[in-house]
Amino acid sequence: MSGCERMNELLGAWLDGAATAEEAGAVGAHLASCAACRAQVRWLKALKAGVGACDVEMPARLKASLLARARAADRRRALRRRLREAAAALHRPLAVLGLAAAFAAVLLVLRARRVDTIPVSEMLAAHDSYALTLPLANQEEDLSGLTDALDGERL
Fold first, then answer.
1. Domain that residue 67 falls in
2. What is the per-residue pLDDT across 5-23, written as a single tens digit (0 to 9) for each?
3. Does the reported pTM lie above 0.70?
């Protein structure tokens, strides 16, 4: 819902002085930045003044119908406000729960990927032992090639 649509819902209560402090603050902040809504407020004030200046009694059925509609609009507005408050109150615990679940998932992944650690000194010693065997491996390959060649000549 855009800001202007929300203001359309609140302007009647605001003009009648029936808006909550939060709603009145929202209307005031919106009107400070929206020329179209300020023009609508001027029009509504003029309409209200014009209707108030009329000295004609409203038919009882029309008056009852308008009052019923106004009460229904007030109930809808109150319901929307309670739903927003309930959603905000529900959102906080759900956000905390979601954050805790994400943290637990990260811990599980890290724990599953954990590798037994080997001290650096042992890794270096193993590397040095391997490095010492490399020349022997090269000599062995040379000797096996030589023996293969010799075996071939004997045949």
1. 59-114
2. 777 778 878 888 888 888 8
3. no
